[in-house]
Amino acid sequence: MSRTESRPGPEASDALPGPGAGVPAAAGDAGEIGRALRDVLGLAAGFERRLGTVLAVNPTDMKAMEHLIQAGSLSPTDLAGRLGITTAAATLVVDRLVEVGHVDRRPHPHDRRRVVVVPRPASVGRAMDELMPMIGGVARAADALSPRERATVLRFLGQVREVYREASDGPVA
Q1: Is residue 74 within 8 Å of 64, Cβ to Cβ?
Q2: What is the pLDDT of residues 117-127, one digit of tens each?
Q3: Which of 22, 123, 124, 125 has the smallest C-beta neighbourhood within 10 Å, fewest atoms?
Q4: Helix (H, G, I), strand (E, B) or coil at 58
């Protein structure tokens, strides 16, 4: 070490920071709930990765499949809007999904100059085969709640949803 470089003082330590170090006091008492929520979000992300692997699609294509399954069919332009990507990028997504056999392009039912993207029933079935155990488990957990507990959970999740919505819409630092 050169003479101009500073050395850590006696108060410096090689010890690693403990759990929660650096978490602002504004986090309040959300610790246990925050950890549980992070666990659920992490498990959900892992499940989506696994489903993407099973269906042989990347995360963007997976999100496209989700929108198509929910809507039944979408124009490439509508799909681009829902994914937050350009129409050119949506064309590439649709091309990949057609190539792996998950969707078909069909003429628009009212405007033959346009096309709609339609998920193939076999792909929807395959996705649902993977999703149903998880959906059923969540339904069983919800069914075990009393009406009062259900109202509390729904109120809390609604508040958390708003926190995420506001954070997503806010300026990028």
Answers
A1: no
A2: 999 999 999 99
A3: 22
A4: coil
Q: What is the pLDDT of residues 86-114, one digit of tens each?
A: 999 999 999 999 999 999 999 998 988 89
How is domain 37-167 classified at the architecture level of CATH? Orthogonal Bundle (1.10)
**DSSP string across 83-152:** HT--HHHHHHHHHHHHHTTSEEEEE-SS-TTSEEEEE-HHHHHHHHHHHHHHHHHHHHHHHTS-HHHHHH
Residues 6+ apart with CB under 8 A from 123: 55, 65, 101, 102, 103
Q: DSSP letter at 9?
A: -
- Encoded tokens for 48: 């989506």
Burial label, 78 (beta-carbon count in 10 A; 0-12, 13-18, 19+): middle
The whole-angstrom separation of Cα 102 and Cα 126 is 10
Q: Letter for the amino acid at 133?
A: P
Of 76, 62, 63, the residue nearest 104 (C-alpha): 76
DSSP 3-state of 74:
strand
Helix (H) or strand (E) holding 28: none
